[in-house]
Design brief:
- It contains 19 helices and 25 strands.
- By secondary structure, it is an alpha/beta fold.
- It has 3 domains: 231 residues, Aminohydrolase, N-terminal nucleophile (Ntn) domain (Glutamine Phosphoribosylpyrophosphate, subunit 1, domain 1); 183 residues, Glucose-6-phosphate isomerase like protein, domain 1 (Rossmann fold, 3-Layer(aba) Sandwich), CATH 3.40.50.10490; 141 residues, Rossmann fold (3-Layer(aba) Sandwich).
- A hairpin with a 2-residue loop joins β12 and β13.
- α3 crosses α4 and α13 packs antiparallel against α19.
- The radius of gyration is 25 Å and the shape is globular.
Amino acid sequence: MCGIVGFIGKAPEKVLLEGLKRLEYRGYDSAGIALKFSDRMDLFKAKGEIKNLEKIVPNETTARIGIGHTRWATHGKPDETNAHPHVSSDKKWAVVHNGIIENYIELKTKLNDFGYDFYSETDTETIAKLIEYFYKDDCNVISVLNKTISSLKGSYALGIINKEQDGIYFAKNKSPLYVAKCGNEVMLASDIICFKGFAEEYYPISDGVFGYATENGIEFYDNLSKIDVAPIPLNLGDYSNLNTYKHFMLKEIFETKTAIKNIIEYYSEKNNINKFDGRDISKINRVKFIGCGTAYHACLLGADMLRKKAGLDAEAYVASEFRYQDVCVDDKTMVVLVSQSGETADTLAAFELAKENGAFTVAIVNVEYSTLAKNADIYFPIKAGVEIAVASTKAFSAQLSVLNIFAGLVGERLGKNSDPLYDVRKLFECFDYGNINDFKLLADVLRYNDSLFMIGRGDDYYIAQEASLKIKETSYINSNTYYAGELKHGFLALIDDATYVIVFATDKNVFTKTVCNAEEAKARGAKIILFTCFDLSEADAENFYYIIKVKELGNSLQSVLNIVPWQIIAYYTSINKGINPDKPRNLAKSVTVE
């Protein structure tokens, strides 16, 4: 979940800092850069956000090469000692790393036996010392790199420099890494957004591949054999900065309708929507939806959509649990993997298990150049555009919209549905962002709470889970979610007159039952906040402490209309508490470690 950037060219200190800012969504516990001069290599490290690193890096240097890193801590606390880059004992090698080296303790023990001491708690320092160890007996760096990565178990994206050599070495396995060239300048990065404004194409690096970049070109190796890698055109769409918004989270919430429009335009093209052409799915008898966090909540709703539209047995699983449960997966199983980044480590591990068991794999992804998109049997892009804020907003709504289309397509292939785009078009027609002032008022109420409860039934319960996650992520409020019918089976013990209970009730079929469950909490003193799309009489409305009303859509994409208000409420609750909603503590955007 760390961010890596490397650069060969003019003013690397400026390019590295700008690149790290673009990658800060991947971690902001600490940051550092290494700059190579003609006669030395200087390191700069700082705890916290990139702005702290900016204060100590010189504005102008004569360096021509550098590597940088922004960290989300996995091994060792977030401080300057554990910040990257990490160096070899002779201070000639510097390494930045994203991923986890699973056998680093074993390697560290062996290196200790050979006389190497360690200054940090990280697994990455082991890589720097290992390179130094191999280089003592073999001055061919390509051979040394091959020996090094052959010794590593786990995931890694590596940027490496040597103070006596004019280039950047790199290697990749199960963590994203890309390289681009413009004239005699070269950039290395863990996300292609760093290449915006630098190059018009980039080179993807496959697992197990390593190489070397200089002003004269880029070389790629698989084992010890040089290989050719074809460049890919850089297409980042409308990726931009904050513009008039104070935070990316708010900007991205208000890009939701544009994302839905993009989805309709993309899937209205016959070549884009005919994903199953030439593929027989008639033998599929069960579908597994897999995701993490927000994507898992999309999976819960996606499974429900598929059951309704196609009549198939469909279940949702948390990716990190999927591999360790006794789930039935074979060649009659379709596995649908949902991920904003397409690089989520737990989801990729579940994907590998699905493929090993012969399943037909479908990826629902935002990042179309990602590992998941490239390796699934088919993939459905969600067309949400770049999402920077850690708390996912527009991507969740886009995932639900594309999952609805997917469910409709499967139903169509099975003769049970006629227009896969109908629901999404209807959503776009009636979409709005609701009464922002109402949301701000509720956010002002919630800011004073240490905990709150959310209840619902069916899809309302699933949306309550996502709303609760947004509140937790951005405001650090201990928000808990329960099925409405479960109140009397334990949850009521937590209720008193200081408790807020938010009732999600947008399903007409269970509205009365859900409200009756809320009355059980009210009788114990709770303040009941109703979230609904139905009109209430004045007498009924008086039963509630606060009411938030949204439009009624009448199909399963009601969930999109339901979640947007809670994204806005979560945003303003965070602002009211003085928290940066883009960078919640202890979290990062792209979770590339298991």
